[in-house]
Design brief:
- It comes from Halothiobacillus diazotrophicus.
- The protein is an alpha+beta fold.
- The chain contains eight helices and 13 strands.
- The protein is 33% helix and 26% strand.
- Strands 3-2-4-9-8-7 form a six-stranded mixed sheet, sandwiched between helices. Strands 1, 10, 11, 12 and 13 form a five-stranded antiparallel sheet that branches. Strands 5-6 form a two-stranded antiparallel sheet.
- The radius of gyration is 23 Å and the shape is elongated.
- The N terminus is likely disordered.
Amino acid sequence: MTTVASASGDVTIGVLIIGDEILSGRRSDQHLPAVIARLAPLGRLPGWVQMIGDDAPRIEAVLRASREADEIVFCFGGIGATPDDLTRACAAAAFDRPLVTHPEALRLIEAEFGERAYPHRVRMAELPADADLIPNPVNRVAGFSLAGHFFMPGFPNMAHPMLDWVLAGPLAHLERRDYLEQSLWAVDVAESALIEVMDELCQNYPGLKLFSLPGRVDGRLLIELGLKGAATPVVQAMSQLRRRLDALGVRYQETRPIAGS
């Protein structure tokens, strides 16, 4: 399996998913896979992800820390109008800004809902001062951004088109990185039998990350073993891995074995 990109630009990208419904299991997260899929063509991965309940001090603390670290953050959830929607106020506090009515956000809500915008939906126009809007193609209730932090709804049908807009607009400058991820599948061998091989790879290629994911198929031992990092050393390290497996007589495949095959 191979994922490849080229060029540089080193910035940490975080994903923050907010809502008690995620932690309780009433809703399953769909945002992290969406972010991963969209970053892959840029040779990038999220540097961190956190799932937080409706906990204002914790949300504020995470946002303040990522702000101070000058990170890019995609934040999903908690920007609605109900009392458990805390993200807008937490973002304002984390960025040391007052929460104010954004005139354009208010206009869009009024245009979408008319009289039904009052008295509650208009709360969603209360944003941190000087925030920029993220267009919502579904119902025009905008998300917002502050200094590389992008706040979107918890609803995937709204949030993911908004994420696409962010990547095509404000983050269009995000550079492709020199990144390659390759792996193979070792069959009928225990993970412990390959630890010395893994140690050698880590010693010879300290700039790469090695991963080993054991499992089974049709009751047989299976290990996905691979490396990720800059493209040239990944190719070299994978060649060394194949040579070592050949020398040990370990059977492997370049694609995952299929059950029943």
